[in-house]
Amino acid sequence: MPSSKPPSSSASPEQPGRPVAPEAPELIWLRPERTGRGPKPAHSRDSIAAAAITIADAEGLDAVSMRRVAAALGAGTMSLYNYVPKKEHLLDLMLDAACGEYRLPAEPSGDVRADLTGLAHEQLTIFRRHPWLPGLVIARPGIGPNALRYTDHFLAVTAPTGQPGGTRMEAMAMFNGFICQFAQYEQSAAAGAKWQAEMVGYLTQAAMSGAYPHLARAFATAGPPADPDQAFERTLDRVVLAILAPTR
Amino acid sequence: MPSSKPPSSSASPEQPGRPVAPEAPELIWLRPERTGRGPKPAHSRDSIAAAAITIADAEGLDAVSMRRVAAALGAGTMSLYNYVPKKEHLLDLMLDAACGEYRLPAEPSGDVRADLTGLAHEQLTIFRRHPWLPGLVIARPGIGPNALRYTDHFLAVTAPTGQPGGTRMEAMAMFNGFICQFAQYEQSAAAGAKWQAEMVGYLTQAAMSGAYPHLARAFATAGPPADPDQAFERTLDRVVLAILAPTR
DNA sequence: CTTCTCTAGGTACGGCGTACGTAGAAGTGC
DNA sequence: GCACTTCTACGTACGCCGTACCTAGAGAAG
């Protein structure tokens, strides 16, 4: 990072007499964390993200409110807005901080299939540690420095396929989407036995009603509830296969 | 639907002297819409869902609040709670009502690949009509009668693969997940030119910083912005391929 | 007819995101 | 050194949210 200025925005000349903020960028990653003027901030983006993640891990994403996070930091509610102009940005910080937990090898091994499988397991591990994370990954682009490091790694891993960059980005979206979905399914399964039982009862009733013959057959021919880990491996295999397949 | 009672819940004998609700089911589809006693309701689940969908289409899912929906129906806020015990259930109704928009052929053609491709396009069309829908589909199981009709159809379409029911359900999750993700990406792209420009600027800056060499190379070798429709077809092809592939 | 259940709807509570204003700390330019 | 500028901290307040709880009254069941 040689220059501290965001590349000088040559588009709007900016009248010199107007000291007002030129238009603060919407993207939090374009806002400098510190400008150097004024009193030293008592907190950092990292500590804020860490506090928010602690709350989310313990009580879910809904429990993460500006008030809660500020209180956890020992700050006044509105002080938080000096660091995080909108709550949306707080989620961005959480997402990127979580992406910082990836343990990525410096170089891909060259075995694309093995690298992707390993990456998927790493991702699932992190998702299990932070149950709220899949929801964020699905909802937001994921663009902070740590997320970019992940993206870069994925591109490195898939480079041997010879596919163009855009295609590999699409593949990454598919890959991430699958893992998010699996993690969320796993959570909802673990969530409530009572709710689960209710749903199973409802579904079998629906299947037996005759209105959904194929669903009924699928239920009838289903064996034991199927090990989730096996289902993950099985479907991951197919996703990787789709990624490795040559583009039509 | 021969019996109006949810299959008699043989588990809890239910003391006859207690007139209190036995434990209302959490699942809205297990609650009868009408019991027959008392005054006739002024609204129906369908009309409520329709009102909510109208609001969501026009102003986004965040604009759908119990107050807004009730007002749109000309009802008092709290009256809505007679039909929809929790807001969560309102979302369930919306999701299922939207699933009712599928135009599904009575029988699959037998060409699995063609059927899946057609289904994907139908789904994308509906998602484009209801931008809030992918978010719901990703977040919730989708279990109402119309959603089950969709599930049944998917199982029918994929029956010729000879895969067991569970595997085909996993395939459906992958299939839906991909289309949701694409639809959401499409929306965010269409959302704001200014935000878009900001992000492109940030990303190119990041790529040029040297910290993300593979990302930089992908940027450098990228041609024109790539037609989204083509990207959809391309990735859909791979998803279908993954679905058709034999399980390891 | 009596009784009991259901519906409509108002009021109120606690929590949310955040606009706005004030007070004071820490750098900058003369 | 000093005024000026710019930043931080934080309290107050507004409008919205989901929804618990309560009162009336409609209408089927006995």
Kindly summarize this structure in a few lines.
Chain A is mainly alpha-helical.
What does this 3D model show about the protein?
With 248 residues, chain A is mostly helical. In chain A, 58% of the residues lie in helices and 0% in strands. The longest helix of chain A has 27 residues, at 165-191. Residues 1-21 of chain A have low confidence and may be disordered. Chains A and B meet through helix 5, helix 6, helix 7, helix 8 and helix 9 of A and helix 5, helix 6, helix 7, helix 8 and helix 9 of B. Chain A binds a DNA duplex (30 and 30 nucleotides) through residues 19, 35-42, 65-67, 70, 75-79, 81-82, 86-87.
Summarize the helices and strands and which ones pair or pack.
Two copies of one chain form a homodimer.
Chain A: H1 45-59, H2 66-73, H3 87-99, H4 112-129, H5 133-139, H6 145-158, H7 165-191, H8 193-208, H9 213-221, H10 228-244
The structure holds a DNA duplex (30 and 30 nucleotides).
Apparent shape of chain A: flat
Largest sheet of chain A: none
What does the average pLDDT of chain A come to? 88
| Helix coverage percent of chain A | 55-70%
Give the topology string of chain A: H per helix, E per strand: HHHHHHHHHH
What is the oligomeric state here?
Answer: homodimer
Number of helices of chain A: 10
- Computed CA radius of gyration of chain A, to the nearest angstrom: 23 Å
> Strand percentage of chain A, roughly?
under 5%
